[in-house]
Specification:
Elements (H helix, E strand, L loop, with lengths): L34 E2 L7 E2 L2 H34 L10 H4 L11 H14 L5 H17 L11 H7 L3 H12 L38 H26 L8 H11 L9 H4 L5 H21 L3 H4 L3 H6 L10 H16 L2 H8 L3
Antiparallel strand pairs: 1-2
Helix pairs in contact: 1-3, 3-4, 4-5, 5-6, 5-13, 6-7, 7-8, 7-10, 7-13, 7-14
Length: 352
């Protein structure tokens, strides 16, 4: 493969549909010496000619991001300059970290940061999605109670970036430690979102009932579908003539060439196998159960994937659980994580 590793050091992002690391000019495939748009800082060009050529398409979203960045900068400067009083202590970004929303003067800042993530996600590039993810994660650290519902969008952003392991770790933390009745969200000394490299192959039966929102459940399903596709790829490549006794290094060439998930890069024990029948059976069962669970939680979600134009235009509003209005928000959070991995979307649409 002649493409370099992605910024995460892996190659799986090349196998996803998110536009990144390449000039956004018309029909341009240049990947070297790229420059970011100076206004939005979320899209790349090989030079001024292609930036001008793309301007009619990019202009509106660029302007929104630029304005959102400026608004956030003003709100942050005002918050840092504000003297301590009965409503807000000095140096709130350090002294108030973890409980920002309870400090009422911080709310304009938090809303401005949320608005910036929303405008960034109107730009379908890796740089925009990475920036939106970074802002979202920092907002969760500033305000653990997440009064704005930021965490609902994070697993899908991880998936869009090919960071499936981190998506799984986050979903599992919120569905185990974060879902525990005795977890004290006001105690900032307790561990928070601290799971790493959990076993993505494990059946989620022990915690799936505690998955806190539909977006998490959908992303868990998407993640397992991608993993199933990758294990099926290994099995199929191994069956090809001359590949029966392939080395680990050879199998990792298959992973770099075809894998959608980043999980196999850390799982030498899985890649080195000669048979994967048990894993295929387990993952197929997990996907069926998760599909059924999503359908049980909201019967409108899976059909929505067949009508993306309709649901993309729907504006999120107040909803009741299980309603079409809930899908308005969940679809917006999760659709691109499906659309940018066509084999996963194809598999889930074929299910009944």
């Amino acid at each position: 493969m002649d493409l370099p590793p992605a910024p995460n050091g892996l190659s799986n992002r090349w196998n996803l549909g998110l536009h990144w690391g390449i000039c956004s000019g018309p029909n341009c495939h240049i990947r070297e010496n790229l420059l970011k748009c100076g206004a939005c800082k979320a899209i790349l060009y090989c030079g001024a000619d292609h930036q001008r050529a793309d301007r009619p398409r990019h202009k509106s979203s660029c302007k929104l991001v630029k304005e959102a960045r400026e608004t956030l900068a003003r709100e942050e400067a005002a918050l840092r300059a504000r003297p301590g009083d009965q409503f807000l202590m000095d140096n709130p970004f350090e002294a108030g970290r973890g409980r920002f929303w309870k400090l009422i003067p911080t709310r304009d800042y938090m809303q401005s940061r949320f608005d910036l993530t929303s405008t960034l996600l109107n730009i379908r590039t890796g740089d925009a999605v990475e920036a939106a993810l970074e802002h979202s994660l920092e907002m969760l650290q500033l305000n653990r109670s997440d009064n704005q519902g930021v965490r609902s969008q994070v697993p899908a952003l991880y998936l869009r970036l090919g960071r499936d392991q981190e998506a799984y770790d986050m979903i599992k933390w919120h569905s185990t430690f974060g879902a525990a009745s005795d977890y004290d969200w006001n105690n900032l000394d307790l561990p928070y979102m601290n799971l790493h490299d959990e076993d993505v192959f494990e059946p989620p039966d022990s915690f799936v009932k505690n998955v806190e929102n539909l977006s998490f459940l959908v992303c868990l399903t998407n993640l397992k579908v991608r993993l199933l596709l990758d294990i099926r790829m290994l099995a199929n490549e191994a069956k090809k003539r001359g590949n029966i006794n392939a080395s680990y290094e050879k199998k990792m060439e298959w992973v770099r060439e075809h894998a959608h998930s980043d999980v196999l890069y850390k799982r030498r024990d899985i890649v080195e196998r000669t048979k994967w029948d048990d894993l295929l059976g387990s993952l197929q069962s997990q996907v069926r159960k998760l599909y059924a669970q999503v359908k049980k939680e909201n019967r409108f979600y899976w059909p929505a994937l067949k009508e993306p134009e309709r649901w993309s235009a729907a504006y999120p509003t107040i909803y009741s659980v299980g309603s079409p209005h809930e899908v308005n928000l969940v679809f917006r959070n999760t659709w691109y994580s499906w659309a940018e991995c066509p084999p996963a979307l194809e598999m889930i649409l074929a299910m009944r």
